[in-house]
Each structure stands twice: as structure tokens, then as C-alpha cells.
Design brief:
Shape: globular
Largest sheet: 7 strands, antiparallel
Structural class: alpha+beta
Strand content: 35-45%
Strand order of the largest sheet: 5-6-7-11-10-9-8
Length: 216
């Protein structure tokens, strides 16, 4: 498979993932759906501020990438036969938004980050039936890997953040989407989410070497 066809397939998968996290879950009605875990007291778990009894480690076995999510996530499988490329999404809902890790299988470099974001925004807008745009972007590196952070805004009043990391044989996507009036809680939770991500073989408490790690 050529690099161009690989990128096209990854972009299509990014669009599929956007349909789940940035599209289907973007409207406020979806955020209020049953299954969102109730609020709980904040505690320290492995140095991270967490909601008691809810945060747990989720690992994507093919890539070895792990994250901490509030509660057991919904897992969505993408296949080459149905979606054009293999990949997996892990989605967790809270009272104030959605967190998701998506891993795409396929060679990915720094030049692929912007096209991935463009595909995400285009499909999120289509699936959510509202214009979803990026209000700011920042290039960064995460443990030496090229990354792109973007702020998200929907005309329906929902906001969020998405991060793409080009990790060699995988493209990693981390995101949060939720209502504007819950932005402070979303920011805090998203920072935990980013801080809790680990690549295989990395030390506990992964580091990020860019200010792009934080909402901006």
C-alpha cells in the first residue's frame, strides 16, 4: 500500500471516529443520555486527580498505548473490510462531556496531522448537523512524536479539544467534547486524560514536551 493510499484510509477512519465522538455524541441530547457516571469525590490516583472509583487504565493491545478513563469505556472496532483500515476507539462518558482514545493502524508522520484534523472537522460537522470548526491549533511533540492539538467549537454550543499524535505505525487521537457551560470541568478532566496516556515502554507518568498538552 502506498503512503498516499494509507493516508486516505486513515483520513476516512478519522472521519468514522468523528462520527462517533465528534458527531453522534456532540449534540447536548447525546451527552445527557443514560449511562453517564454520577459525580464523585475527587481523590489522588497515581498522582492524578480522579473521581473516586471511576478512573481506570485502558490499553489498546495492538499499539500498547494506554490511557486512564473515568469508568469502563465503550469499545468500537474498525476493520479494513468495513472501514478501509483497522483501528479501535475507546469512549467514556461523564456528566460534563465525552472522552475518547482512537488508535488507527497505519504509517503516520507529521505531514499527516493536518489532513487528519481536516477530515475530523468535516465529518463531525456532517454527522452533528452543525458546523464544527477549529478555533485554534498548535503543533507539538509528545515523547518526541509529532502532535497537533486543536480547539473545537460547534455552532450548537458544544466545545472540545482533539490531539493527533503521529506514532510511526499508528495514529493516535485523544479528544473531549462537551457543553460550553461545563468547560472548566472538561479542561481539568482532559488534562488528566492527556497526562495519563502512556506509550509502551515509557516510564510511569508520561511526559509531554510542549505547551500544546494543555487546553489553550
Amino acid at each position: 500500500m502506498t503512503r498516499r493510499s494509507t493516508l486516505q484510509r486513515l483520513s476516512l477512519l478519522a472521519a468514522s471516529a468523528a462520527a462517533i465522538t465528534g458527531g453522534v455524541l456532540l449534540p447536548g441530547t447525546a451527552l445527557a443520555a443514560p449511562g453517564a457516571p454520577p459525580a464523585a469525590a475527587a481523590v489522588q490516583v497515581n498522582g492524578l486527580r480522579a473521581e473516586a472509583g471511576q478512573w481506570q487504565v485502558t490499553t489498546d493491545s495492538p499499539s500498547g498505548v494506554s490511557v486512564q478513563l473515568p469508568g469502563k469505556p465503550e469499545a468500537v472496532q474498525f476493520t479494513r473490510a468495513a472501514d478501509g483500515v483497522d483501528g479501535r476507539a475507546y469512549i467514556a462518558r461523564t456528566d460534563y462531556g465525552v472522552l475518547a482514545l482512537t488508535v488507527y493502524d497505519g504509517a503516520a508522520g507529521a505531514e499527516d496531522l493536518r489532513p487528519m484534523l481536516d477530515s475530523y472537522l468535516q465529518d463531525a460537522s456532517q454527522k452533528a448537523s452543525t458546523n464544527v470548526t477549529s478555533t485554534g491549533t498548535e503543533e507539538s511533540t509528545v515523547e518526541g512524536r509529532p502532535a497537533l492539538d486543536a480547539q473545537l467549537a460547534g455552532e450548537d454550543g458544544n466545545v472540545g479539544y482533539v490531539r493527533f499524535i503521529a506514532a510511526g505505525q499508528f495514529m493516535i487521537q485523544l479528544e473531549t467534547v462537551g457543553p460550553q457551560d461545563q468547560l472548566d470541568a472538561m479542561n481539568e478532566t482532559y488534562l488528566q486524560f492527556l497526562a495519563g496516556m502512556q506509550f509502551p515502554g515509557s516510564d510511569a507518568g508520561p511526559t509531554t514536551d510542549s505547551s500544546g498538552a494543555e487546553p489553550f
